[in-house]
Amino acid sequence: MPEFTYQGVGKDGRRVTAKLEASSENDLRMALRGMGIRPTKISRPSKNKTVSGNVRSLPIEVMVGFTRQLQVLVGSGIPIVQGLDILIDQASHSGLKAIAMAIREKVSQGSYFWEALSAFPLVFPKLYISLIRAGEASGSLDQMLKRLSRYLEDSYRLRKMMKGAMMYPIIVISIGIGVVALMLVFVIPKFEDMLKTSGQELPGPTQIVITASHFLVRNSVYIVASMSAVFYFGSK
Asked: Is residue 101 a contact partner of residue 47, using CB atoms and an 8 Å limit?
């Protein structure tokens, strides 16, 4: 539930400033009335801008779970606000929980579900919002959520298949690079000593390989650090 900040006057005439959680401003006023406090000012920090600024996207598997669970709840006849409450309680992803709370707040204030989603264009793509809007307009929101679930699941499955298909060539290339690097670092220097003792002039290709070996040995630390950074950021 959203947290309100309120100022009021108690039964003894003293001014009170505090925070209290409530599902809506009306519920907060009723709670304060029961506590004997007459509210003079009620404010609530807007979470939508903070959430949309911090959460730029959600993992596709999180989006799949959110859409599928919401479809089951709506298809069971549970109102969208109560369904979002259930998802908020069950959410383990902090970004999803924050976004669901902001969406729930907008819907409870009278916004359409698609309008609440459109406040987060970096999270929910236009296709997602358009289908939700069509579902709300036609009264078939659960069917649209089901289609979106299938679409997201197919996209997630395809992405996993593409990653799996790319792993084999990446592994082969990595092994090849590793073998060449080991030869340049450990094998070529020994051959260089043998060729120098023979007193013969080195051919151009051989000299290029030896120069590459020297460069790799001198800069091995920087090369390994750069490759590790590329692999780390590329895997994100």
From this structure: yes
pLDDT range class, residue 72, cuts 50, 70, 90: very high
| Strand residues in the chain grouped as ranges (E) | 3-9, 15-21, 38-43
Amino acid sitting at position 67 = T
pTM, two decimals, is 0.53
Instruction: Write the CA distances from 68 to 19, 34, 43, 118, 165, integer angstroms.
Output: 35, 40, 34, 19, 27
In angstroms, the Cα distances linking 194 to 182, 183, 191, 206 are 18, 15, 5, 13
| Closest alpha carbon to 96 in 104, 108, 88 | 88
The CA R_g of the chain, rounded to the nearest whole Å, is 31
Structure token pair of residue 89: 């309680």
Handedness of CA 124, 114, 106, 154 (dihedral sign): negative
120, amino acid identity = F
pLDDT of 233 higher than 50: yes
C-alpha 96/C-alpha 102 separation (Å) is: 10
Apex 64 CA angle, 62 and 66, nearest 5:
70
Q: What is the pLDDT of residues 136-146, one digit of tens each?
A: 999 899 899 99
Helices 141-182 and 126-138, packing angle to 10 deg: 160
Mean pLDDT, range 48-52, rounded to an integer: 45
